[in-house]
Design brief:
The chain has about 240 residues and is of the alpha/beta class. It is globular, with a radius of gyration of 20 Å.
């Protein structure tokens, strides 16, 4: 069974970070990821300073402020034998606030990117932190596929009509529409279910991974992401171009 987890790094304010990174992890080796995070917590607890940091965060591991850089690097190297796919969208804010509309658009494009770069693999449910979308319990995105047929070429002697191609787009469903569509087997709907990250080591793992990607773009610091690139993690993503 494939599990999927979603996280973000950066902030939503126009005067904060330069970038907002949304990262999604897919793996069938959930227990291996949990084991890595629990081992890291045990090592943090063995040091008084690190133990206090962990306590202040309610026992939750976060990339931001991680108190032991050597241990952080060691943890990032751990997935060397864990097969997982990591996809991300990096949004350049250009001083803009990131409201829900923009965030929905980035998530939609992230799902589309994954769909196109994973042989159209189906993802049914994604776990995200409890406040990912204004603390709503869940959100649902529907895949819409449609054909685009280019108009006849102008200004050429041999006007030819281009071949039609199929495009896909994920749209956010309102609760009523979701209820009317959820039982239709031919519909591809991705549900984002919100959980408390303090209770899910998998969400803490994706926070670390998302933090390394954020550092790569926000601070042009490749120190951490290069550790991931040497593991079995299949890392794919791009700068989000739309505004």
């Amino acid at each position: 069974m494939e599990f999927a987890y979603l996280d973000e790094s950066g902030d939503l304010g126009g005067k904060g970070s330069k970038y907002l990174v949304l990262t999604l992890l897919c793996t069938h080796r959930k227990q291996d990821i949990i084991k890595v995070i629990r081992e890291t917590k045990q090592r943090l607890l063995s040091n008084n300073k690190c133990s206090r940091w962990l306590s202040r965060h309610g026992g939750e591991i976060k990339f931001y402020g991680f108190p032991d850089k050597t241990l952080l690097k060691h943890t990032l190297k751990k997935p060397s034998n864990i097969e997982m796919n990591v996809y991300f969208m990096c949004f350049r804010k250009d001083g803009k606030n990131v409201g829900k509309e923009i965030k929905v658009s980035i998530v939609s494009d992230l799902f589309e990117y994954i769909f196109e770069h994973s042989d159209k693999k189906r993802i049914d449910k994604v776990i995200a932190d409890i406040d990912f979308f204004n603390k709503e319990k869940s959100n649902h995105f529907l895949l819409q596929e449609y054909n685009i047929c280019p108009a006849e070429l102008e200004g050429q002697e041999d006007k030819k009509k281009g071949a039609c191609k199929t495009e896909c787009k994920f749209i956010l469903l309102d609760p009523e529409t979701y209820e009317s569509l959820k039982k239709e087997q031919d519909k591809m709907i991705i549900t984002i279910e919100h959980q408390n990250s303090k209770l899910h080591e998998e969400l803490q793992a994706i926070d670390l991974i998302s933090g390394t990607i954020f550092m790569r773009y926000e601070n042009e610091n490749k120190e951490y992401i290069e550790l991931l690139e040497k593991t079995k993690i299949n890392l794919k993503g791009e700068i989000y171009a739309k505004t």
